[in-house]
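Form P-L/3: holo structure prediction, ligand FE2/S2 (inorganic) cluster.
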Amino acid sequence: MGEDGTRFFLYAAAWHHTRPVSNVMRLLCSLDNLTQRQPTFLQSFLVYRQGEEVSVFRNRCPHAGKAIISSDADIPLSGEQLWRCSAHGALFDPVTGEGLSQVCLNAFLTPVTHQIDEHLQLWIDD
Ligand code: FES
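OUTPUT (holo model):
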């Protein structure tokens, strides 16, 4: 195969690797970039990986609509297992998004529709 044929092959491979799982989704990250069982703030989304399962939520608190993460200081440290709202301190389960504190009992973070493709790339419906 000539040089042009080789280029086409490489382009096609790259396209296949990054193509969205649907037309309305965008790539958020590779699962390899998410630490297991560590709440992760990524491109303004709250992300949590447990095995091959991932939860993704909007950075908005159901209590008063403030940002859960409003600065780097609000990002959970290694080993912390809950989201804590930066405004009034409400706690949320990182898997289900369920509110665990009085001000947010029976309330949930807003989930973001997402999919993981065959290359373990995480896509979100933004
Ligand atoms: S806005 Fe989050 S606890 Fe009040």
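COMMENT: The chain has a mean pLDDT of 87.
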